[in-house]
TrEMBL record:
This is Transporter. Residues 63-130, 139-206 form the BON domain. SMART domains: BON (SM00749). PROSITE patterns: BON. The keyword Manganese does not apply.
Length: 221
């Protein structure tokens, strides 16, 4: 069972179940999510392949999309442009990054996230200060792209298993990984251009569990 940033558990789902869900997405073109309040539109073979290779269950994968949309919407309704908040949900744990105008707003963000269905935990990395500039956000996007590309070049772990978020030159790494995979990902990110700091937001699993999740039919590479 993964060791989450906060105490959490996850259940295994057979690969066949994931494939059935993917086929349903491709056939229907969209999927009602969270009791019909938010439609997730299938984006084609690329997104479907990513879901199959992901270590999250297909249910968690889809719920993460809904959680991000709901949290971002509620924050936007509450604070408008007075705060710049990025929301990233991975296996139902929500990472908040960005800037809040004061500590009161920063604290209220956690209450907003906690009120969203299916959220298991909140990692609040929002800083108090003025909103970042568009130039700074563009630089963060470039850092994220570079780190992802270096993950592929390094060939030390599957890049599908590590999500990268960058804020103010700080790289946050999320995923369901082994300790060795986490160390490799952190090392690659740390040595990437313009990265100021690396923060791990991983759920840790054993090598045996990783093999089981990567090969749910029992096949071994």
């Amino acid at each position: 069972m993964p060791n989450a940033p906060h105490t959490a558990s996850r259940s295994a789902q057979p690969l066949e179940g994931r494939r059935r869900l993917v086929l349903g997405l491709l056939a229907a073109g969209s999927l009602p999510l969270l009791q019909g309040c938010f439609p997730v539109v299938a984006t084609g073979v690329g997104a479907s392949a990513a879901m199959i290779s992901d270590r999250r269950t297909s249910g968690a994968y889809v719920e993460d999309e809904g959680i991000e949309w709901k949290v971002a919407s509620r924050i936007r309704e509450r604070f408008g442009d007075s705060a710049h908040i990025n929301v990233t949900s991975y296996n139902r744990n929500v990472l908040l990054t960005g800037e809040a105008p004061n500590e009161t707003v920063r604290s209220e963000l956690e209450r907003i996230v906690a009120g969203v269905e299916h959220v298991r935990g909140v990692i609040n990395e929002v800083v108090v200060g003025p909103n970042s500039s568009l130039t700074a956000r563009g630089n963060d996007a470039l850092i994220t792209s570079n780190v992802k590309a270096r993950f592929v070049d390094a060939q030390r772990f599957s890049p599908h298993n590590v999500k990268v978020v960058t804020e103010a030159n700080v790289v946050f790494l999320l995923g369901i990984v082994t300790r060795a995979e986490a160390d490799a990902a952190a090392e690659v990110a740390r040595t990437s251009k313009a990265v100021r700091k690396v923060v791990r937001v991983f759920e840790y699993i054993s090598d045996e569990e990783a093999r089981r999740l990567d090969n749910p039919t029992g096949a071994r590479k």
